[in-house]
Specification:
heterodimer, A: 493 residues, alpha/beta, six-stranded mixed β-sheet, four-stranded parallel β-sheet, 21 helices, 13% strand, globular, B: 73 residues, mainly beta, 60% strand
Chain lengths: 493, 73
């Protein structure tokens, strides 16, 4: 199918919304729109960060998912207690593939699940005593942990436990950082508020720890990578580029990060923000309190990576800028060969995305480098400022959908007929059974890294592997195949 | 009385950020813009305006409480 016009997209949206009751239709229509690149502000065309409608299948998560799963979880030398019933921690354990270096269970704890396993009596009599006992047990069993965070699940807020008091006593008793995080799942409309709460807890309980300590040796080239969760090793393939350029990466937030890295971040010269949605809060705070400027960058695909590297280098002196050009020249043949190999196989293919955080806009450049076109994109939990940034990246009259429901997404795919879909695990098997090639873009479908020049090679290979897989032509049973296909086979025999 | 952050964006333009509303917009006009008296009515690019009790020229970025005067349409 060729490009859709603005009217066609509008007609498609109203056709899809036809099945809803009047009220739901009115509500949902605000979240779906054809893109208009002439707009400066997204709030004129799309509504976001609103409560999902009861009765529809939303793909969102909760505040606990945003705090424990995204922001705090990857900090490897701290133990993150899932405080409450056992399920939240168990079913989210190790699913996000935040890679880290360390010995699990000795000095790193990311893939382990610590939970206070609430029972009826804890709900009735309160769980503070259990939490205190648990922290003592952790200190005995895992003495090399650098700190503990208490990630609240829903019941904690409902029964009114005072986890802050427990945290303060235990912090004194053990002399380690203990962070209470009020990220009960029912707070907010999606995981987005969980990010904010987690950022605030970092601000209140961690960031100021070394304000009076000047023993850390600083250089003029100190930077921190903020909002890179090292999914499949993403932060590592970003970090080497920055280091080759002559910068010193002091901290990684929070993929493969540590507590002391977080404490040292106020001493850097520049914060580099990859995931704006989940970590802009802390960056803004550091700018205000410590005067550290921050900038967003994009390491998906060679065009955007080169653009971002130059932008980063421009913040420093000429020696860095010269080295930046050297790095770009060094990698240029490498990524050019990737494009030469895969572009002919992927040219002109159309992609629909529905993901969260930064990817709905950031990966567009990587697809364009491969000659592919993104025809629809949307955020699970984006805010207005995310859409502000997306409008400029997307083509005119492409589909934008916010917090799209399972039904709407399926209908859009049936009508738009993209060649590839990038979304989460819950969508994967539905679309694969519909015969549409699919990549799981939350944890890179068990592949990765995708950041940087090294990551781009893997990205291109994965997209080719999925799109040009021979299985897609074998989905229809031989006797149900259209006549022409039979003739083609007969002719080739 | 929303709490907002005033900052200079990378291009050096003065912006106002309202965290609760994800609103980040350029300040197009400032009622008082001198070193000792700075603030007053802040007009935003989207047509809304806020009132900041005049203060001495602050070090940006800074979080302040402002009064909402005119809503965006």
């Amino acid at each position: 199918m060729s490009e859709m016009s603005r009217e066609e997209v509008e007609a498609l949206i109203s056709e899809v919304l036809e099945v809803y009751p009047e009220k739901a239709k009115k509500d949902r229509s605000k979240h779906l729109t054809p893109n208009d690149t002439s707009l400066e502000q997204s709030k004129k065309c799309i509504t976001s960060n609103k409560k999902s409608l009861p009765g529809v299948m939303t793909i969102r998560g909760c505040a606990y998912a945003g705090s424990k799963g995204v922001v705090w979880g990857p900090v490897k030398d701290m133990i993150h207690i899932s405080h409450g019933p056992v399920g939240c921690g168990q079913y989210s354990r190790a699913g996000r593939r935040n890679y880290y270096i360390g010995t699990t269970g000795v000095n790193a704890f990311v893939t382990m699940n610590f939970t206070s396993d609430f029972q009826e009596k804890d709900i009735v009599f309160g769980g503070d005593k259990k939490l205190a006992k648990m922290i003592d047990e952790i200190e005995t069993l895992f003495p090399l942990n650098k700190g503990i965070t208490i990630q609240s699940e829903c019941p904690i807020g409902l029964i009114g436990d005072d986890i802050e008091a427990v945290a303060k006593t235990k912090q004194k008793e053990h002399g380690k950082t203990v962070v209470p995080v009020r990220c009960e799942g029912f707070r907010g409309v999606s995981q987005s508020l969980g990010h904010h709460i987690a950022n605030d807890s970092v601000r209140d309980w961690v960031l100021g720890a070394r304000d009076d300590d000047n023993s850390f040796e600083q250089t003029d080239y100190d930077v921190a990578i903020i909002g890179d969760y090292n999914i499949g090793g993403d932060a590592w393939s970003s970090r080497i580029l920055l280091e080759e350029m002559g910068l010193r990466v002091v901290a990684q937030w929070s993929g493969d990060g540590t507590l002391s890295e977080m404490e040292l971040t106020p001493k850097v010269k520049l914060n580099l923000v990859h995931c704006y949605r989940s970590m802009n809060y802390i960056s803004r705070h550091m700018e205000e309190k410590y005067g550290i400027p921050w900038m967003e960058y994009n390491f998906f695909g060679p065009t955007k990576t080169a653009e971002s590297l130059r932008k980063i280098a421009a913040q420093f002196d000429e020696s860095i800028q010269a080295k930046c050009e050297e790095v770009l020249a060094k990698y240029q043949p490498e990524w050019q060969s990737v494009i030469d190999k895969y572009r002919p196989r992927l040219e002109g293919k159309r992609v629909m995305l529905y993901i969260g955080g930064l990817r709905p806009r950031h990966v567009i450049g990587a697809y364009e480098d491969l000659g592919m076109e993104v025809v629809g994109t949307g955020y699970e939990f984006g805010h207005n400022d995310d859409y502000d940034r997306t409008i400029k990246e997307m083509g005119n009259a492409t589909l934008l959908y916010d917090d799209v429901t399972g039904y709407e997404f399926e209908e859009f795919v049936k009508k738009v007929k993209p060649d590839l879909i990038g979304s989460g695990i819950k969508e994967k098997y539905i679309f694969q059974k519909m015969g549409v090639p699919f990549r799981q873009m939350h944890s890179w479908d068990y592949s990765g890294p995708y950041h940087g020049f090294d990551g781009f090679a893997i990205f291109a290979k994965d997209m080719d592997m999925t799109l040009n897989n021979p299985c897609w032509s074998k989905l229809a049973a031989p006797w149900k195949k259209p006549e022409s296909a039979d003739e083609a086979i007969a002719a080739s025999a | 009385m929303p709490s907002v952050m005033l900052r200079k964006d990378p291009e050096g333009k003065l912006t106002l950020y309202v965290p609760k509303r994800d609103l980040e917009d350029e300040i197009v006009s400032l009622e008082f813009d001198s070193d000792e008296k700075w603030g007053g009515e802040l007009k935003l690019a989207d047509g809304s305006s806020y009132y900041l009790e005049p203060i001495a020229l602050p070090k940006l970025p800074m979080t302040v409480r402002v009064k909402r005067l005119v809503e965006a349409q």
